Amino acid sequence: MIKSVFVRPEKLKVFRGLFFGEVNAIVISSIPLVAFLSIFMGGVISLQTAANMGSPLLPEYTIGYITRSSTILEFSPTIISLILAGKVGSNIASEIGTMRVTEQIDALEIMGVNSIGYLMAPKIFSATLFFPFIVIISMVLCMVGGWVAGVQSGLYSTETYLIGIRAFWYEDQWYVYYALVKTVVFGFLITSIACYYGYYTKGGSLEVGRSSTAAVVAASVAILLANYVLTQLILV
Amino acid sequence: MIKIENISKSFGDIDVLFDINANFKEGEVSLIIGGSGSGKSVLTKCIVGLHEVDTGTVLFNGRNFTKMNRKERIEVRKEIGMLFQASALFDSMTVEENVKFPLKMFSDMSEEEMIERVNFCLKRVNIIDKNGLYPAECSGGMQKRIAIARAIAMNPKYLFCDEPNSGLDPQTAIVIDNLIREITYEYNMTTVVITHDMNSVMEIGDYIIFINQGKKWWEGTREEIITTDNKEVANFVYASEFMQSLRDKLINN
Asked: By CB neighbour count within 10 A (0-12 exposed, 13-18 middle, 19+ buried), where does A34 fall?
């Protein structure tokens, strides 16, 4: 299946149109959800860190530092990818699954179109290339959320929070690359797994629903396993 | 011409088709008839390569389709148009985009030329000023006609129709049948229609093969099917008592 995805498309012009259509459907349309989640999760991470800092030996800027680290290392790349697995994965699996059970994929094949390449390649490429941008947006908004939550509740000042955000940045900045590498892998996993489950759906509408659920479960498991392996390989 | 030789197909332990031979000629409407579950659709899917045959060969004008690699098959498929049972129109595309799709993928036409061809094909199936509608906004009969327009957009040499009348009222079914027949004669296509609609058999069947229990049970013309002695074919064609009495009258006269 994967081999057929990377076959040269029948018409590059058509592929370009499909690719940007998928960037819009998969990536751009996910930004509001990601922004909403990131702002509130950033706020909660900061507040929980502040609430659990009992030791007077810990400087107050640790709140900003922990918010930044947890956001870059785990929340934005992994949790957002898990959420996108639900949103994007189920959407892709049900879209392709419906096309399968209504013989639209057979119609593509009969016309001589490489149905795997036509349906899957734009989705896989758009998610793999553009999910990192969503994650960068999420990282920024998460830290903004942490700042807003802490400052408005009076737990810390803007200056203290910003010191925490900037702390040890020189040593830690490669965490961003680690996060982006993870996101590229997760983007590929989410879309390819969802495409696979959708494409090989057999039956009717009930099976489309089952494929959609199975795709989300499989993609989530794959993300968690890949997260562990990549962390072991890159971070440890 | 399409020639099929000794086609057999099974799915796991279930044998579906046994040793089927047939010749589908150019400029003729050939019908594959048979009861539900007899293997008609599987046979058609084997012919067009959606299912791989276990044994046997499919020849498109002498070219052995079963031995071809994917690339070679794609070239043959560009000469095939297919009308699916549920139309299989792309539901996220408008009527115009559906008909334009094969042109966009495989022709070097300019946008204007494509629109001209789309309008010609839609007009040919009597659909006018519906270019902007989505398939869900069209009736069943219209969807079939749009699917025919899409199937003929690339001037195919071979046309396959999988139960083109299913879910249609008798009048609309006759319109679709006549359209298939007219297009076949007009473009000298090799047309294969799967059906269990006896109106279609009598209306458009130039050559008919009857499939029963996965085997070719009978073949002949529509004139021959009326008077055939073959018990299974007669039971299928004249399923009701009314039709049987009609047959007796016909033979006696």
From this structure: buried
Whether B80 has its CB under 8 Å from any CB of chain A: the answer is: yes
Q: Around Cβ B120, how many Cβ atoms within 10 Å?
A: 13
User: Measured between alpha carbons, how far apart are the two ends of chain B, in Å?
Assistant: 37
- What confidence tens digit (pLDDT) does each residue in A217-230 have? 999 999 999 999 99
Q: Is B86 on the interface with A (CB under 8 A)?
A: yes
Q: Do B50 and A11 touch (CB under 8 A)?
A: no
Which amino acid makes up residue A167?
A
CB A14 to CB B91 under 8 A?
Answer: no
Residue A56, pLDDT score:
78
pLDDT at site A121? 93
Radius of gyration for chain B, computed over Cα atoms and rounded to the nearest angstrom: 19
Å between B184 CA and nearest CA of chain A: 18
pLDDT at B224: 85
Say if the Cβ atoms of A106 and B78 lie within 8 Å: no
Asked if the Cβ–Cβ distance from A102 to B88 is below 8 Å, we say: yes
Question: Which of A103, A112, A114 lies nearest to residue B86, judging by beta carbons?
Answer: A103
- Whether B102 sits inside 8 A of A111 (CB atoms) is yes
Question: Taking a contact as any Cβ pair under 8 Å apart, which residues of chain A between 96 and 125 contact chain B?
Answer: 98-99, 102-104, 106-107, 109-114
Amino acid (one-letter) located at A6? F
Per-residue confidence (pLDDT) for residue B35, from 0 to 100: 84
Say if residue A236's pLDDT is above 80. no
Between the CA atoms of A6, A10, A16 and A21, what dihedral angle is there, to the nearest 10 degrees?
A: -90
Low-confidence ranges of chain B (pLDDT < 50): none
Chain-wide mean pLDDT for chain A? 92
Instruction: Give the whole-angstrom CA distance, residue B143 versus residue B172.
Output: 11
**pLDDT average, residue stretch A5-32:** 88
- In sequence order, the 6+-apart residues with CB closer than 8 A to the CB of A138 are A34, A35, A37, A38, A71, A75, A76, A80
Whose CA is closest to B36, among B196, B234, B237, B164?
Answer: B196
